[in-house]
Automatic annotation (TrEMBL):
Gene that encodes the chain: 100301511
Top-rank taxon, per record: Eukaryota
Keywords in alphabetical order: Signal
Span of the signal peptide: 1-17
Native source species: Bombyx mori
The protein's name in its UniProt record: Hypothetical midgut protein Bm123
Pfam families hit by this protein: MBF2
InterPro entries given in the database record: MBF2 (IPR031734)
Length: 123
């Protein structure tokens, strides 16, 4: 009986985290993590954002619109490679919406390389 209770408690803790592990991302820094990924969510879009070195800071806004009747539940942005001291933030929409606008800003004389994942579900 104690074993069954321990098993149930372990399962509840595992399900309550609602995170999906990405085994290929061990060498990447998580720059932005908003929302939670549940078991019924699916990866709506995955893409890379790369900019070369520029003399001054550049602002790059990217907008993603989910398919009809889908809502964004989580946004994950990971930096690829060594830190380039770039920033990323949500400037429009986001979790609970069907659109999101991400703003990427590089540091002077540096570029950036990010992997972006947008998760969502029907609703």
């Amino acid at each position: 009986m104690k074993f069954a209770l321990l098993f149930v408690l372990t399962a509840v803790v595992a399900v309550s985290t609602n995170e999906v592990a990405d085994p290929s991302s061990t060498n990447r820094a998580l720059v932005l993590s908003i929302g939670t990924i549940a078991s019924n969510d699916r990866l709506l879009r995955s893409f890379s954002v790369t900019r070369g070195v520029t003399a001054t800071s550049q602002i790059v806004d990217l907008r993603y619109t989910a398919p009809n009747s889908m809502r964004i539940r989580a946004i994950r942005v990971r930096q690829v490679g060594a830190s380039q001291f770039a920033t990323v933030r949500v400037v429009g929409g986001g979790v609970g919406w069907n659109t999101v606008t991400l703003r990427f800003i590089n540091s002077p004389r540096r570029g950036f390389n990010f992997n972006v994942q947008i998760w969502g579900c029907f609703g």
